[in-house]
Design a protein that fits this description.
transport; six-stranded mixed sheet; ATP-binding; ABC_carbohydrate_import_ATPase; sugar transport; alpha/beta
Amino acid sequence: MKLELRGITKRFGSLVANDHIDLTVEPGEIHALLGENGAGKSTLMNVLYGLYQADEGDILIDDVVQHFQGPGEAMAAGIGMVHQHFMLVPVFTVAENVALGHEQTTKLGALDLGRARQQVRDVAKRFGFQVDPDAKVEDLPVGVQQRVEIIKALSRDAEVLVFDEPTAVLTPQETDELMAMMRQLKAEGKGIVFITHKLREVREVADRITVVRRGKIVGTASPQSTNAELASLMVGRAVELTVQKSPAVPRTAGGLEVRGLRVRGDDGAILVDGASFDVRPGEILAIAGVQGNGQTELTEALVGLESNVDGSINLGGIELNGRSVHAILGAGVGFVPEDRKIDGLVGTMSIAENLILDRTDTGEFTSAGTLRRSQLDRFAHECIEEFDIRAQGPETRAGMLSGGNQQKVVVAREMNRDIRLLIAAQPTRGVDVGSIEFIHSRIVAARDEGLAVIVVSTELDEVVALGDRIAVMYRGKIVGIVPGDTPRETLGLMMAGAEVEEQAA
């Protein structure tokens, strides 16, 4: 089945998310749609799937114009989507999820789950993986949940499959398995749209690559293109993709010592289970793991955002556990939270105001309760220049900035304080390749200036690039701490739960 998009345009008010996009997917082809977060890739696929209606343009299947009013019509036409955020009902079984929306009944009118179970078995056998039709989805690992999404699509005779950022929650081994599955689908004549922002993966599996930037197609490329060429298309300029850093020269005293850290949720569930590690001044400890294995709770415990915390968090001889967030920041901790919009910025406030959110009581920028405007403006201009924040000026509202520039504001605020420990959680999530280059360089510079640095990331490339040592979390536990040059395959096994003894770095 041949799929063609012609001149697809989608607007949200004054924002043009898709601007006259043309795309063709041939049978038996993997066509990668490459672009940074916010480039318009997912919006385009939601138009294809009937979740959005295009303002202009046409969708054609085998040269016939289609008018999808919803996902049901798209599925009936042979289009299946494996969503980035799984569209599964957690309390339902695998078979019930596969049957949902396409329920078939027996002659007596009862739901025919037996047929759904058989569909699960048939597809699972075809691809050589184990999926229990009667298992509850909430009990399955994320990699298996993704396979359930694929089974749903294939059980409805999809001829074109859309994979929307499919590797975001997978271990390296699960990613390799997914790539093999995509190649098998291609061999069976299926057309595949592979949406991603990961250069290595797109070069590995794609037949053709279309690059989207700011809602427009800016070029096409072949899998033989270099990472630098693809990155340049994505960003619009040359980008240094390799993190440049010299070997770490850590000091032994004055760093962070965490012992027996345990975090419980409000329901009593153990979210971090006995974590112990050190971070020395002058080194980066990268914490890896699939999202949801306790990394968020660990970092929030370190800065006082978790209430049910046991164990010791000692920074240069000062015990931090039990102190307020304000006291912990005052003790020399800088914190770049994983969600900048919720925890890092006040969108309605200016860049200048966001740069001093945690410094209004120091007297540096206030006097007798009044803001020292000239001092603040001078500081803000210095930060904007030093951190290359693209904005009209310090009074620009933070919420009006791009994701990369918002993140630079957060990084600038935390690195312009007198800190001894920098904790950066998902420091480059949702930012463009150019901003990634800059933020990585600043993190390495902080290490070289003698700070102890923790980087938490679900992006294994980022972990390997930045970490002098790497700690891997699985189900709330640190399963091992290894040198930064540990092979990706070993890290992938650890991310799946394999325990490794701590090695000297």
